[in-house]
Each structure stands twice: as structure tokens, then as C-alpha cells.
Amino acid sequence: MVSADRPAVAAIVREVGNFSGPEKDCALELVDIYLRDAAQRDYRIIVATNAAGAVQGYACWGPTPMTLGAYDLYWIATHPRAQGNGVGRELMAHVESKVLEENGRLLIIETSSKESYGGTVGFYRRLGYEEASKIRDFYDVGDDKLVYIKRFSR
Ligand SMILES: CC(C)(COP(=O)(O)OP(=O)(O)OC[C@H]1O[C@@H](n2cnc3c(N)ncnc32)[C@H](O)[C@@H]1OP(=O)(O)O)[C@@H](O)C(=O)NCCC(=O)NCCS
After folding, report:
1. DSSP element (H, E) containing 93
2. CA nearest 99: which of 64, 146, 147?
3. The model scores a pTM over 0.90
4. Cα of 75 from ligand 1 centre, angstroms
5. Which of 89, 101, 103, 119 has the greatest count of CB atoms below 10 A from its CB?
6. How far is residue 142 CA from its own chain's centroid?
């Protein structure tokens, strides 16, 4: 990701539909941390573009603080008009390859049990992530935190 991609990424965050106001703000805060200093090690961001160079999706991940070899996927989103065409799969393949390059052994994704995240959970399962834990009523009453993981052997 480079600064010129920010408006397209902001539009994706705005338009995917299932992010709350605070979630949108947080997603863009991480984008700005990355754009201010792409060499910092906490947050990495990649964008996926189409043949014309237009941004279709992005992913943000980084090493989980105070662990050895665990990584968090902080955000992933594909523009609604581009969903279902393999963009998310490509983004995840890139993230996983980078985690493996650094000898990562675990990729962790936190998501919500809300119905609006049902498709997202289907996507993670399809890509081989398994539910590792659930905290009931974490985000709100009736809105659990689901933790999905993939382990890499090393
Ligand atoms: C989740 C998301 C990133 C998936 O991106 P995408 O580009 O549409 O996904 P892909 O087209 O690469 O799909 C990859 C695989 O997941 C499957 N998949 C995608 N959406 C799915 C769904 N709703 N239910 C079940 N499987 C699904 C696809 O069938 C595909 O499988 P295949 O390659 O074997 O055919 C996208 O739907 C999105 O941006 N959602 C809103 C934002 C969000 O919830 N982000 C995560 C929280 S941070």
C-alpha cells in the first residue's frame, strides 16, 4: 500500500457495510500508522489491484505483541463490487506467505458472531481456519467474539 491508495481503501472500509463507526475509525488509524512509517513492524498492509491498477481489497496484519511466532490479521476487506472473485483468497495467501517467511507459526483472526459476519466466517472456514475459542457477549449482549486460527508447522 502507498499513500495514493488511501482514498480507495477508505472507500472500501466505508462501503463494505458491516463495519461500525468505531471499527471504520480503527481500520483507518492502522492505515495511517502504516502510511506514516511503512518500515515499522507492528502493522503491515497490502492492497490487491485489478488489471487497471484499481484497488479492490486490502489486508492488515502484524506480529502479536509479547508472543513468539503468533500473528494477528487485523482487517481484511474486498470492495462489495469485487467480492466473490478471489481477491480475499489472494490477500490471505499473501499474508500467510509473509507470516511463513518470518517463521510465524500461528495466524489469528478475531471476528463477530453477528449475522452480518456470517459470510466472513464462511470465508475463513473455506480458507482452512478453525474456530479456537468463543467469548459469549464480548462485543455486546448476543454478539460473541469468535477466534479463528491457522497453524503453520515449522
Ligand atoms: C470476507 C471477504 C474479505 C471475502 O473476500 P472475497 O474477495 O469476496 O473472497 P474470495 O472471492 O477470495 O473467496 C475466497 C473463498 O471463500 C469463499 N467465500 C467467500 N465469501 C463466502 C461466504 N459469504 N460464505 C462462504 N464462503 C465464502 C469463496 O467461495 C471462495 O472459495 P473458493 O475460492 O474455494 O471458491 C469479503 O466478503 C469482505 O470484504 N467482507 C466484508 C468485510 C469483512 O467482514 N471483513 C472481515 C472482518 S475484518
Report:
1. helix 87-101
2. 64
3. yes
4. 13
5. 89
6. 23
CA 146 to centroid of ligand 1, rounded, Å: 17
Domain range annotation of the chain: 3-151
Q: Whose CA is nearest to atom 25 of ligand 1?
A: 122
Predicted pLDDT at 18: 86
Q: Whose CA is nearest to atom 20 of ligand 1?
A: 123
Cα(87) to centroid of ligand 1, in Å? 8
Sheet holding 106-112, edge to edge: 44-49, 55-63, 70-78, 106-112, 143-151, 130-140
Q: Which three cell numbers stand for residue 7?
A: 482514498
Judged against a pLDDT cut of 80, whether residue 154 lies above it is answered with no
